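Lab notebook page, bench 4
Experiment: in silico fold of construct C2
Operator: M.H.
Input chain length: 192 residues
Purpose: comparison with the prior construct
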Amino acid sequence: IGLGIPAEPLFRSRDGLNTDGWVSDGDVAQYGATWQLVQDNDEMVSQDGDNGYALCYNGNYYEQYHYGDLISPKIGIDANQDYKLSFYVYHGVTSSMSIMPTIVVMQSTDDYPYVQLGDTIRVTEGERGWTRHELTLHKVADAHYLKLCFRGFVSNMNERIWMDNITIEPIVNTAITDSHMVHTSGMDTRHY
């Protein structure tokens, strides 16, 4: 798992599976849901073909709605910079359960409580295949680091949630402001 900022996926597997720093948590005590970082297999192939992705599954045979959290290591940030989070989720999966599988993405900054980013992602909706999601991270004054939590909800052992290519990168402001403009009046040029 590489935590390169900018624009390096937070886990990849070209040279073998690497899970350094990632934690799987949740209600696994009752055969509940959990996450694993796995390699391509007959069931699923990674979005970018690098032979690694995250899988959320429920170990319970009967329909019991459980959650599993995939939690990132602490990621150092610049408090004066805005960041965006992007990742891929496999959509269009079918389910016969009464409650469909979903993902909720959350952020914790400097060990404060997690707050949800964006809307709940319903993996049964949309066309079948990998779909890119992008969320703006919450900016917190004087922040030093953040952690991400991907909470997967699944109803039984037949359901899966697949996720790949989690990336955090700075948001580059391309807007032109007065301080970047050159004003001219006759022979006089001023730079602001």
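Observations: The longest strand covers residues 160-170. The two ends are 43 Å apart (CA to CA).
Next step: discuss at group meeting.
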